[in-house]
Amino acid sequence: MEQQKFIETVEKIRDAALDNHGKISRDAVASKLLEEGMELDESQLKMVYAYLKTSKVEVLDDGGKELSRKETDSLETPKDMEEMTEKSEEDAVLDGESREEEFVKIYQDDIRKIAVLSEEELLKTMERLSSEKDKADKEAVINTFLKDVVRWAKPYHDGAVYMTDLIQEGNMALIGGVETFDYAKALTLDNPVKKMRDYLRKTVTEAVQNAIYSQESENNVGYKVSGRVNAVNDCARELSEEYGRKVTMEEVADKMEMSYEEIKEIVDLSANKIEYIRYS
Length: 280
Hints:
The protein has 13 helices and two strands.
């Protein structure tokens, strides 16, 4: 549960930074961690900074400058990598993927240290949970299946969503699944532990797939918006060249056989940046 809390906190820090134009101060990171009762040493903080960098977040020092590589790297890197001052976009993507893989590896190493229940112990815990849902018993079940969440999520990782995000979604689904599973009913069936494991796996994989689908849907909306803005821009440019001046939204609407309200909505989405349209 401490590992789960740590992940949730780091994700909150990342989301707050992204809402702040992808920037966050070192003090703000430390304050948020302290609010959650987490005091990390320097190497652990570097791991957090490195993860934030994979999410395209800049961690700033007291003077408002981005932390140096020395201050953010949690692992040693080849000397020639240290000496590079610029990286191509492809290299940056690969670097981000490498850092995320390292973060997942560190997470897996951490959860391997957590005590898990044997099949026999799981069965006894299920028997107790069938009559009274004790918090300690639920946490023990959750801890036992944390490593499985990573294994269940991996086949769905295609790069559209960070693996760390899929693990986060999977862990939240695991917690919910442990809460909602019908232990009493499972105990009346053959191999109740397998029934629980199958239920939790289904719950986790559905959450992972939903996270990927939601991300793809958001991307599709972005592509559609961009396409509509480009279509209006192209039409406005053609009319502007024909008339020798900037054109009105009414003229674009007439040309595209759309309503003024539809054109205005698209223009608003462009933040009024279609240069061929007269806005006043």
